[in-house]
Amino acid sequence: MTNSIALSEDKRDCLQEISNVAMGQAGDHLARLLDSFVVLSIPHVAILTPTEIAMAVQTVDEHNVSGVCQGFIGGGIAGEAMLLFNDTSFIDLAKLMNFEEELNESAERELLIDATNILVGALLRGIAEQLDIEFSFGPPAILGQHQELDKLLASDNVRWEHALVIEVNYKIEGYDVQCDLLMVITESSLTRLYGKLDYLLD
């Protein structure tokens, strides 16, 4: 890891606080939208490799997962959000989102895309507002369904060696719905992001 991407303690604390505030806003928005209480973890902020992400993710132990990624860019900062769902989530996710069709593979893909649009949008808008930038989003893409996490994060899905990762764990009270949101910011964007954090820290 080069010095240019090393994350100082001050910057980590600042980014964790920004993420915390954004999560509070996102949790409130999601609770109203889904009519359920949303439990959010303390965000974890670190420079990670794809292999380290697989070890760090809180949701996943021996379970298979389904994943979606969605690119974002704005203010010279680019990256992708990755949403990882435990496979046990689908039946309850369908109930939560009032999805009444048969739960086949195609319906699961639709649920994953809808959930990604809601969960990713809510958090990233809160982060962008505090950094005084505006993110535009690409269309969500399915990384894989019912796979082991290390296969989901294989090299054909992941195009970076090191990245700044903000990890947030979501649980929906009263439902067996649990997922991890990883906000992955590319190495080439870190100089711009760190400049924004320095401005906030001054």
Short description, anyone?
By secondary structure, the chain is an alpha+beta fold. It has helices at 9-34, 50-56, 90-96, 105-131, 149-152, 190-201, and strands spanning 38-40, 44-48, 65-74, 77-86, 136-137, 141-147, 163-172, 177-186.
- Alpha carbon gap, first and last residue: 26 Å
> If you average the pLDDT, what whole number results?
82
**What's the main sheet like?**
8 strands, antiparallel
* Overall spatial form: globular
Oligomeric state as shown: single chain
Number of DSSP-assigned strands: 8
Helicity range: 40-55%
Protein architecture, described:
This protein has 202 residues and is an alpha+beta fold. It has one domain: CheC-like (Chemotaxis protein chec), CATH 3.40.1550. 41% of the residues lie in helices and 28% in strands. Strands 1, 2, 3, 4, 5, 6, 7 and 8 form an eight-stranded antiparallel β-sheet that branches. β3 and β4 form a beta hairpin. The mean pLDDT is 82.
Looking at this protein, list some descriptive labels.
single chain; 202 residues; alpha+beta; Chemotaxis protein chec; eight-stranded antiparallel β-sheet; globular
List the helices and strands and how they pair.
Blueprint: H1 9-34, E1 38-40, E2 44-48, H2 50-56, E3 65-74, E4 77-86, H3 90-96, H4 105-131, E5 136-137, E6 141-147, H5 149-152, E7 163-172, E8 177-186, H6 190-201
Antiparallel strand pairs: 1-7, 2-7, 3-4, 3-5, 3-6, 4-8, 7-8
Helix pairs in contact: 1-4, 1-6
